[in-house]
Amino acid sequence: MKMDRTKLADFLRRSRERLRPQEVGLAAGPRRRTPGLRREEVAQLAGVSADYVMRLEQARGSQPSAQLLTALARALRLTEDERDHLFLLAGHRPPEGARAGEHVRPGLLYLLDRLGETPAQLLTDLGDLLAQNALAEALFGCVCTVAEPDRNIVWRWFTDPAVREPYPAEERDRLGRLHVADLRAAATRRGYDRPSSSLIDRLGAASEEFAALWQRHEVAVRRASRMRVTHPSVGPIEFDYEMLQTQAADQRLRLFTPPPGSRSVEALELLRVVGPETAHRSHR
Fold first, then answer.
1. Model-level pTM?
2. How many helices (H) and strands (E) does the chain have?
3. Pairing mode, if any, of strands 251-257 and 235-245?
4. Alpha-helix runs per DSSP H in 170-232
């Protein structure tokens, strides 16, 4: 990414001028002639030299590091959006946003319920299924009573043969590789933190297939694809699979929409009428 020195200089200067001394615990003083903070004050708050702040504001400075940008963002009391803007102007990828973990915002639960004609699921970036609407439950089954360590869709794929049965046999290898490649991308973004490393270790110990695929070092974020399943109550259904990023960096919304005008539209409508309970009895 390329650094835009002119825009970076302007943004730093205007951010400094907008910030009042009392907002950072400094006295305004009777002789303050410039609006906002002085360069020396920003430098002190960020732990850098005043000369470097001046050169950045004059579009003469060298490219700041990510650590220095973080310090400047904190000193200037930038919002998350402003911080990301600062990073981009300086030629850096913005830091990952805040994670929500297992907490699901009420608005997302409301959205899942309102998507009555579309199967929808909310998952973590590691594949833990947090919530799903009634149509997704009718399609894929209920996981609400599954023990927490086993509600992960990657874990279930590689350890529970029944999970693969609805998918065409000729596509199962490809889907397995997609699961592993997407998990690799998520673990790398997380810096192989404890949850991701623990899941990878468990999978490697439980599944020789996963261990072999992991050794291939394939990486790909799963965003959209065409997929097919065969449901015991309504038969084959084809979907366009869409993965949407939520406000949290570690949660995703999965949508399964049938191609317009296809038989899958009727099959999905029939499944909606049948409902989860009947579908579950068919699974059994």
1. 0.74
2. 12, 5
3. antiparallel
4. 172-189, 194-206, 208-214
273 CA to centre of own chain = 33
Q: Please give the Cα distance from 34 to 29 (Å, whole number).
A: 11
Give Cβ neighbours of residue 198 (< 8 Å, ≥ 6 apart).
none
Identify the residue whose tokens are 């296809």.
262
Q: Which residue has the tokens 């989860």?
A: 276
Per-residue pLDDT tens over the stretch 221-234: 888 888 999 998 88
Q: How confident is the model at residue 12 (pLDDT cuts 50, 70, 90)?
A: very high
* 150 has a pLDDT exceeding 80: no
Average pLDDT over residues 102-119: 88
Q: Are 203 and 158 in contact (CB under 8 A)?
A: yes
The residue length of the chain stands at 284
User: Alpha-carbon torsion 55, 23, 75, 78, what sign?
Assistant: negative
